[in-house]
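Q: What would this chain look like folded?
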Amino acid sequence: MALFMSILQLLAGVGIFMAGMKFLSDGLQKSAGKGMRQMFNRLSDKRLAGYGIGVGVTALIQSSAATSVMAMGLVNAGIMELKQATSIVLGAKVGTTITGVIVALSAFDSGGFSLNMFFAAISIIGVSMMLFSKKESINRIGLILTGFGLIFVGLIFMSTAMGTEQIKGFFVNIFQTINNPILLMLISILFTGLIQSSSASTGIYITMMGVGTMTTYQAFFLVIGANIGTCITAVLAAIGASTNAKRVAFLHVITSVFGAVIFSILLLICGGPIADFMDKAIVLPGWRIAIFNIVFNLSYTIILLPFVGKLAGISKRLIKESDKEKRNVLKFIDQRLLSTPTIAVAQVQKEVFHMAALAKENLAIAMEAIINYDVGKSDLLESNESDINTLNKEIASYLIKISSLNISSSDEKLIGTLHHVINDIERIGDHAENFMELAGGILQEGAELSDEAISELKNMYSKVAEMFEKGLYIVEKQDKSELKKVAQLEDEVDTLKKVYNDHHIMRLHAQKCTVESGTYFYDIITELERIADHITNIAFSVDSPTGTIAAV
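A: My prediction, written as structure tokens:
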């Protein structure tokens, strides 16, 4: 019975430890959301920049696998070059070592003071902050402190369970029996692949090391195995992904294997003396693993960093693009990015502006067709319109998925706004399609417009085009200072519609235009006025999700 209860306590400790890591990661992502977005927005071809981003993001989200999957999603969406992703993947392997350092702190115990217990007690502060405060910023800090504290609560449970004679004897016997370095690596690969977190498995190994269940030499190979096992997340994410995303997964695996092979050879030759040196130089056993983990990941990734271009080239030669791959209408979003909500929010914004750019292009094409009596670009307009409709459905679905995730209140508001914005953009696309039909009708019936009518259309369209520019700027920058100008332009468009309709009637009476051309003219200015309404909705969505005009 005692053995059974110790096993339950060990499993409870592992569960609490992993829950703490999850809470800590979620809290850090919420708090550092803008910072993470800015890091990815500064992506460049410089190897060190990508490497630094990989280190920084992974240190925030505490998962190299999640960072690799994020990079995979960005490559799949065409935002990131394969070479950039390689640098980020290498940096992610270093960023994940921070967990080992955090766990190693639990070993500090001096004069009756236990740092482990002190950190564990922080969880009550975090829980209290979440329970008694309604401020989101306080709740985010509370989530971070709760997660941080639970990591050490889990470590206390695991250490206590492993400290019992039954459990300790069980693991000591296992490591006495399994002393083959390659077998130890394989076991660690399978274990880490099962829990899909090298940070968690390394934390568990540090705890086991602290109670004396394994030697430093054995721990080396377990850490190396964990580094390979964490690749399973990226491999699973690559299933059904684009060719480039599969290449990222391949790079994640091959670089980890490279590091494992190099260090395994080194350790097989002189691992004994290295372990003996660390045993003498580092008193606390857990710190031996934490430091080795840092040295291991830092060393081989720095060795590989100058060769990221060649590594990307190798992956391209080995994993060739399929002829059956469809043209991807989506340019910025990918399902794999949902694992990191703050990045998913940033990318879906970009996708919305991609959709808006297509609607804007179609509007220009259609007006050109009317003014120049040339429908030669109708195929391009139809292709764009098809993409707009696809984007509307895909973005809406993506927004719904983001809404179900753990996101900040500001992002929740933004997601609600974007739902309405894409609807208005889609309607603008429909109006552009209507324009092209009107242009076709004018040509077919020979109902050419007068020079005066053309001049008026150009003037009215210029107002609408200016509104579109300002409306998108307002949403992108969340800058309310331009709302007054948009409202003013809409009033001008409404006024122009009335004035130009009167002019149209006067031209009819003066027989300067035909009834047929006059009908087309009225339909066009009506469409322009409706487009202006949709643009106003888009602009004012920063104040109200529905785009209701408030006093400005």
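Residues 2-318 form one domain.
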